[in-house]
# Entry
Amino acid sequence: MFNIDEELKKLPDEPGVYLMKDRGGQIIYVGKANSLRKRVRQYFQSSRNNPPKVNAMVKHIHEFEYIIVDSEVEALILEANLIKKHKPKYNILLRDDKQYPYIKVTTNEKYPRVIKTRRVLKDGAKYFGPYPNAYAVNDTIDIIRNLYPIRTCNRNFEKKQKNTRPCLNYYIGRCLGPCQGNVDETKYLEMIDEIIMFLSGKEDKLLEVIEEKMKKAAENLDFESAAKYRDQINSLNIILEKQKVVSSNIIDQDVIGMARGIDEVCIQVFFIRGGKIVGREHFIIPDTFNEDRKEILSSFIKQFYLGTAYVPKEIFIEEEILDMEAISKWLSEKRGNRVSLRVPKRGEKSQLMEMVRRNAMDMLKQHGEKILRRQRKEEEALEQLKEVLGLDNVPNRIEAYDISNISGALSVGAMVVFEHGRPKKSDYRRFKIESVSGPDDYKSLEEVIRRRFIRGLKEKEIMEENEIQLKGFSLFPDLIMMDGGKGQVNTALKVLEELGLDIPICGLVKDEFHNTRGIIYDSKEIRLDEDSPGFRLIYKIQEEAHRFAISYHRSLRSKSMIKSELDGIKGIGEKRKRELLRHFKTVENIKKASVDELAQVKSMNRRVAEDLYKHFRKNEGR
# Structure
């Protein structure tokens, strides 16, 4: 039994991270401290001066644990990682796991390429970004490839290879064709230097270089080349007109501003590279407990830069934040040289910060209006379902079920959940059918419903006994939707009756063209206007259940096919199987390979290669 008073006495006076847990063992808060003893004890002292969030959280703390670290920076990194992993209820959460795209110039290769990537590696290549979205990267790469005939293939020119037939890009003048073996590498690298100049924000210098080339070409009466350089200059001037110069400083910078609403905040980040805004991104963060601004900004910065591959030289924020020195030290270690975290007071940086704040406020307003419009539509849809089905209450939680198989093989069941008209993906569940052989959707459905609600009843009993908030299977729906007609509905009703449950069940039926036609409820078919909110909602639910079931079935089928083809072969374990597939891409290619080709795979030896070769030839003869 965890005794909080006794455990508080054992806390060390050292830096570390603490994890607060509820009665069910769920982590509800992660924090860091220079002194674990002083910080954690504060939560259990007088609640008079505590913020509302702390008072709400302390009521649910059943136990805690802690991790000792060597420094404040280590505590900061560990805290951010644990928040990202566990997503505790009472932490400020940045619900954004995307990796921003970068442009990579492969200067670590012979005849470098310009490509899009989401991973920044220490591989000798040059990286530019991050860009706010893939469209910005694609547009920039298209501009570069229109200006410069560089290669796009992934050929390895470090190895000596025979010249091959060039691709279409060579014939249409979009690539110089280094695969032909007659491209001057020095001239090619000159193009790459100009591309790097462009991506580094030195377009003015690049314009001077191209203008000088144009003049020389004209002096030498090479008017075709001069015209090409002229077109490049015109294209660059158009690009420069679209880019807003906001800083006289060419250092890479991020500017972070914040706007506050009633129960949410918007944080806006402007990415400035070479003095120009290359993109911006906004984040809407719930603010139920009216957190301190410094706490919100500090949490955002830690989580945001934990998930980005690139840290700029300077980061501007609107006010001093918690852990400012430790965060600056951590970001400097991540970047590899000093990162300045600054609060602008006057001049162009202060004006820029005000612009970012205004954009954050505008985005918050737009978000609020969008949310209101969406909520109205969702409420209308649920009200319509309540009316047409004659339910006592609005069906705020809806569960939909679907079965997927091919001729009864690898049957799977899928459960999707919609709450307040929106998908709740954390509650989606998949079921591998265990008790049914052959194509019997009714029996498969019966198994899924029975397994779901038997487990739900058990979990609900345990959670209610321990006064734990219901979640997952213990939450029962207000309405169940089956992908099918009366047969599927009656199957589900039979299971619920056996379990003593009374939950409304309807079926979603399709016409001969496989389009959603209406609802089966209480043995009657109900048609809805296809433009009505209710119809759009049931269509969305049905399609989502079908998609989720199909995706699970497809993944199982793919694993099964690999297993049946490669498993059980003498000498082929998991490691060799992975390396064979990585090398040959498909099982079909492995079947066609010669003994010599099979033996080239890293973990293979001649004897195993011969066994594998004979295995497939023996099976062909059957």
About this structure: The chain has a mean pLDDT of 85. Residues 162 and 179 are 9 Å apart (CA to CA).
